[in-house]
Amino acid sequence: MREFAGTRVLVTGGAGFVGGNLVRSLLACGVRTVHIVDNLLSSELINVPVDPCVIFTEGSIADDSVLADIGDEYDYLFHLCTYHGNQNSIHNPLVDHEHNQLTSLKLFDWVKEFRRLRRLVYAGAGCAVAERTSGEAHATREDGPVSLQMDSPYAISKVVGEFYALYYHARHGLPTVRARFQNVYGPGEILGAGRWRGTPATVWRNVVPTFVYKALNREALPLEGGGAATRDFIYVGDVVRGLLRCAALGAAGDVYNLASGVETSILDLANRINHLTENPAGVQIIPPRGWDRSGRRFGSPAKASAQLDFRAAVDLRDGLVSTIEWTRRQRPAIEACIRRHAVAMRLAAAPCTASPPAGVLHRSPTP
Ligand SMILES: NC(=O)c1ccc[n+]([C@@H]2O[C@H](COP(=O)([O-])OP(=O)(O)OC[C@H]3O[C@@H](n4cnc5c(N)ncnc54)[C@H](O)[C@@H]3O)[C@@H](O)[C@H]2O)c1
Question: Is the CB of 180 under 6 A from ligand 1?
Answer without folding.
Answer: no
